[in-house]
Amino acid sequence: MADETPPCGQGNTGTAQAEAGPLAFVRAYAAFPLPADLNWLWTFGAVLVALLGLMLASGLFLALTYTPDAGLAFSSVESIERRIPYGWLLRAMHMTGASFCMAALYVHILRGLYYRAYLPPRQAVWGSGCALMAMLMITAFAGYVLPWGQMSYWGADVAGRAVATLPLVGGWLGRVVLGGETPGTATLHRMFVLHFALAFVIVGGIALHVAVLHRRGSSGPSGRAPEPPGGMLPFHPYFTARDMLAVVLVALAFVLVMGLWPELIAEPANYRPANPLHTPVDIEPEWYFLPFYGMMQFVPFQLGGVVLAGGAVAVLFAVPWLDKGGRAGEQPLVRLLALALLVGAAVVAACAGRHHAHGAWLLAGRMAMGVYYAYFLLFLPWLGRPTTPVASDDAKEARA
Amino acid sequence: MIRLMGMRAFSSLPRWSGRVLAGLWLLAAPGSAVADGRPGAFPAWSFSGPLGHFDLASVQRGYGVYAAVCSACHGLEQVHYSDLAGMGLKAEDIQALSAARQTMDGLDAEGHVQRRPARPDDRILSPYVSPAAARAANRGVAPPDLSRVVMVRPGGASRIYGLLTGYAPDAHWQEGRGFRNPYGISGFTAMPPPLHEGGAQYADGTAATVAQQARDVTTFLAWVSAPHQDERRRLGVGAALYLCFLAGLFMILTRRIWSYVSK
């Protein structure tokens, strides 16, 4: 089939007509204008990309040895740790990487909340980011089941029962997730495929997230000011250099945790092989799920707990509609205080989750959950209430 | 004593990391408390702390104790004999060491368990053919696998050491509870006092006191629980120093690039 359109990129002339091809793409990417007053919190996107690259690379090599079978999974992970050449390093990187990914993700999201990065015209950036967060959480959970230690098994059991509490489809969905009534080989196959496949979906999601960002322009710390102080600067070399430095600094923290303080992120109970006949005294997820695990326990009936814990994640999707973008209460101090309360609430909910949410912890946990939801359902609408007429935003579309 | 052995093992580290660690050694070295063999006084473990390292001589002696005493009931199911190369053994040593042990090899024509000398790529199995057999032979309690015991048991190495040395002199079996031992679960353990004076022979001439055996076998079990720990720590220190250097360079680069932007 003859293509009648004339070739648009004749050589690397560097003129405006050379708009196709990888080189032009890289050039356009490097020239992408960003507000000059971006601070260090804007480097966490690059940090996340670096961490996810590491997860993908180490995960591919781990998958060469890992065997998703209830009878073999634990010892295949043990053989990775003990006798595959540098298998211990691959697994250590993958385990540390999971915690660092989630930590960087939370910082990235909190930055977006604080600077109201979800306001028009960037709702799609926020939405795609929330979808990525949900996928990353599912991937992290599925990955934690794979080593088939005690926490893996009982974590899968708790998750299966949580899904089964949903009305109408719950029982069916629980059996689909676990592949039976209790976790087993079928669960491992599901989790392995989910973990592996979602990793690549996330790569695609990141491409989409970045593409939308380039279309809508980056947010900045000066909020909705039409022109950021200092003007705009190209992505390269100003922000590439800064992002590289941030990646190196995070890598430094990464190797310190991985090499010298692995007990910060490793759960010793998961080095016991899964035993369906012996329920551990303390079933608890990784630290990054603890706030939501806590919220699951704060409600006397199961369905309510599941809905509130799921809602705590889902409410992030609704943020662009909750905060209407008004300029009331735009003082940074108020937003900082509210955000500190939100983080504090998550920490209290996590602690209460670890302490089985009874006695004083139950009370504290319920209050924390109230504060958490109040941030989204009361504070954001108050922040965004339109007291002053909102100026047309189109003028300030960041694509200078 | 511990410290002297520690220094010897320390000097065997690759030179570059030796220099690196030398400055930090005083910070990382465990307190100068030396185990005096009193039950309840824990040795200063050379491998604890973020910059600790295993005393491989002690690990090797500990394997001797495991082979002579513990392996009568406990397996190391996740460990292959060849993995023991990591405690400083050569291939011939592993060959000899595995050939000296029997392992299960399926059933014969009459359904009896066959045994044969182990090979380096065999797992270090429990001596019992099944968990049920293990329970039947041990008053209803199956001896746990020791592959990760120091990692998964709360209390870690000192708890294991305490358990091995913490029996009262007249400890006896109490029906339904076990032997009184302050380091057992709720003050009791099903394991009979395993270590006795001279219960294991040391090739290097170390006196095989109960405290010495307990210390060595605990060190061995800690090593088995984390066989690549020393390598991982060395890598962590080396990579961290390299990244500090790299971060310095990037800091200079970033400052220089941003110096063109008027504040």
Automatic annotation (TrEMBL), chain A:
Listed transmembrane segments: 40-67, 88-109, 124-146, 158-180, 192-214, 244-261, 301-322, 334-355, 361-383
One term under GO cellular component: membrane
Cytochrome b/b6 N-terminal region profile domain span: 12-222
GO BP terms, alphabetized: respiratory electron transport chain
Cofactor note: Binds 2 heme groups non-covalently.
UniProt xrefs under Pfam families: Cytochrom_B_C, Cytochrome_B
Superkingdom in the source lineage: Bacteria
Cofactor dependency: heme b
Any one GO MF annotation of this record: metal ion binding
Domain Cytochrome b/b6 C-terminal region profile residues, every copy: 225-394
Keywords associated with the record: Electron transport, Heme, Iron, Membrane, Metal-binding, Respiratory chain, Transmembrane, Transmembrane helix, Transport
Subcellular location: Membrane
Self-association and partners: The main subunits of complex b-c1 are: cytochrome b, cytochrome c1 and the Rieske protein.
Summary of the function given for this chain in its UniProt record: Component of the ubiquinol-cytochrome c reductase complex (complex III or cytochrome b-c1 complex), which is a respiratory chain that generates an electrochemical potential coupled to ATP synthesis.
Family of this protein: Belongs to the cytochrome b family.
Protein name (Swiss-Prot/TrEMBL): Cytochrome b
Natural source organism: Acetobacter peroxydans
Automatic annotation (TrEMBL), chain B:
Transmembrane segments: 235-253
Compartment(s) of residence: Membrane
GO cellular component: membrane
Major site of localization recorded for this protein: membrane
Stretches assigned to the Cytochrome c domain: 57-225
GO molecular function list: electron transfer activity; heme binding; metal ion binding
Record flagged with keyword Transport: no
Sequence positions that bind heme c: C70, C73, H74, M191
Manner of cofactor binding, per the entry note: Binds 1 heme c group covalently per subunit.
InterPro entries: Cyt_c-like_dom, Cyt_c-like_dom_sf, Cyt_c1
Record key words, sorted: Heme, Iron, Membrane, Metal-binding, Transmembrane, Transmembrane helix
Cofactor: heme c
Name this polypeptide is given: Cytochrome c1
